[in-house]
Amino acid sequence: MRFDLDDEQRAIKQAVHDLSAARYDAAAANRRDSTRTDEFWPELSAAGWTALSVPERWGGQGAGVLELSLVVEELGYALAPATFFGNAAAGLLVAASQHEEHRQRWLPGIASGERRAAFGQVQRDGAGLALDAEGAAIAVLAFDGDALVVDPVPAGLEVADGIDLTRRVHRIAPRAAEPLHVGQPHAVDCVEILIAAELVGVAQHAMEMAVEFAKQRQQFGRPIGAYQAVSHRCADMLVLVESARSAVLSAAWTADHEPSGLPFAASVAKVAAVNAAWHVAASALQVHGGMGFTWEHPIHLFLRRASASSRLLGSADQHLDRVAGLTGLGGSDHRTAEAALPAATDGAAAMSRH
């Protein structure tokens, strides 16, 4: 197992960072119109990023979950909309379908970006929620370890009043959806890794904002970062971010090379990333003091994204229970622990205020 990125992987990460930095910043995210389309999507499609992890047989580049997680982390850093994430997550599930006809029908459009896919999940009450589904051709909704496909996505979707102001949550009725019949038992775990990677990007950016502010803001003639109460908090942020990033990279590597260990690795990555994103964003707000609590300051956007994304698919508590079951520390056996995630939960409802 490698414990560092190779040159090609670093190049992927840097390229996406540079692309997104030119189009997304905290100020722009704070002003984002909920009815505005993602103008970055056509450029991502034209550059071939949408084909990154789709198998070559269906027009993709055949890269692994590790490379895909690097892209998603940088988009999470920029608080980008979920158009790329949704398309990538849907592609992973469609590629795992038992039916060749499903892959032939949907993967070429997902790879080229011509038929963008959205991703979401079905709640316990049967309602479907999808991220940034307006304008998507299809929507893939995770459900009890499998998935449903809505094709085509109906026009005029209802927008839920979501916690995360930088992306939209749409309600989709899955009544006419087609079962995807995911054949690979842990395909949804790969999507959990992408969620965790996004949360690492959120935590990284929130930490950088806090450290930069601690360097500039002065009290009693000294930068506030010189005081232990602040410097120790920033150090704790770094530990959380780097620990979560290591867990995500390990899980992504496991998905590509040792899929039998994916349930444990994916759950560990999700828990670590959720913990890092929430605590780092909350600590960054504290470092900014009273200014951090204002609507005009963008730190609340990172806190909102951390809260919303952490509840997509399995929650941290569910993943902790799963890890306990897989390691023999919980009350459930190995099979029960694996079956517990990802299931239809009310977690997606937390993305919405309703």
Give a structural overview.
With 354 residues, the protein is an alpha+beta fold. The chain folds into two domains: 7-179, Butyryl-Coa Dehydrogenase, subunit A, domain 1, CATH 1.10.540; 187-351, Butyryl-CoA Dehydrogenase, subunit A, domain 3. The chain is built from twelve helices and nine strands. The strands form two sheets. Strands 5-6-2-1-3-4-7 form a seven-stranded mixed sheet. Strand 5 (158-160) and strand 6 form a beta hairpin. Helix 5 packs antiparallel against helix 7 (187-216) and helix 7 packs parallel to helix 9. The longest helix is centred in the middle third of the chain and has 30 residues, at 187-216. The relative contact order is 0.12. Residues 332-340 have low confidence and may be disordered.
Topology:
Layout: H1 7-21, H2 26-30, H3 41-46, H4 65-77, H5 83-95, H6 100-112, E1 117-122, E2 128-131, E3 138-143, E4 146-150, E5 158-160, E6 169-172, E7 178-179, H7 187-216, E8 218-219, E9 222-223, H8 228-257, H9 262-287, H10 299-309, H11 316-326, H12 334-339
Parallel strand pairs: 1-3
Antiparallel strand pairs: 1-2, 2-6, 3-4, 4-7, 5-6, 8-9
- Main β-sheet, spatial strand arrangement: 5-6-2-1-3-4-7
- Helix share, percent: 40-55%
Report the principal-axis shape: globular
Strand fraction: 5-15%
Number of domains: 2
The biggest beta sheet reads: 7 strands, mixed
What is this entry, summarized?
Helix content is 51%, strand content 10%. By secondary structure, it is an alpha+beta fold.
List keywords for this structure.
9 strands, 354 residues, seven-stranded mixed β-sheet, 51% helix, two-stranded antiparallel ribbon, globular, 2 domains, Butyryl-CoA Dehydrogenase, subunit A, domain 3, alpha+beta, Butyryl-Coa Dehydrogenase, subunit A, domain 1
